[in-house]
Amino acid sequence: MTNRCRVLVVDDNRDAAEMIGSVLEAFGHETLAVNGGLAGVAAVAAFAPHVVFLDLGMPDLSGYDVARHVRAMVLPVPPLLVALTGWSDEDTVRRVAAAGIDGHLCKPATVAELMAWINRVPRPATATSRSLPA
């Protein structure tokens, strides 16, 4: 499937992360759910995700700090980082942007909201969509 993406879900609530991963797998994506910020940083390096859904309030390493670590990594293709949190106040939205996070979703996010971010990942052109030489 050419539209298959690697999606990483980072949350200190293991059940929530695994549930989101399972839903996205049902849509054909390869997912990895990890528990906590430190595991999230390690998973970005090992899994090379296209999209990372990232909780902000984790006890070991905040989502803001995870984002800063990821943005400092030398990666062939940096992932889209999307905060997935219960916090929606103006200060949170400002801090999300300042940390290099691409977007912000409030929990509970809908499947449509999650898929909208996944659909932002550039896809390779297919044979039918390429221009053919004249």
From TrEMBL:
<feature type="domain" description="Response regulatory">
    <location>
        <begin position="6"/>
        <end position="122"/>
    </location>
</feature>
<dbReference type="InterPro" id="IPR011006">
    <property type="entry name" value="CheY-like_superfamily"/>
</dbReference>
<dbReference type="InterPro" id="IPR001789">
    <property type="entry name" value="Sig_transdc_resp-reg_receiver"/>
</dbReference>
<feature type="modified residue" description="4-aspartylphosphate">
    <location>
        <position position="55"/>
    </location>
</feature>
<dbReference type="Pfam" id="PF00072">
    <property type="entry name" value="Response_reg"/>
</dbReference>
<dbReference type="GO" id="GO:0000160">
    <property type="term" value="P:phosphorelay signal transduction system"/>
</dbReference>
<keyword id="KW-0597">Phosphoprotein</keyword>
<dbReference type="InterPro" id="IPR050595">
    <property type="entry name" value="Bact_response_regulator"/>
</dbReference>
<protein>
    <submittedName>
        <fullName>Response regulator</fullName>
    </submittedName>
</protein>
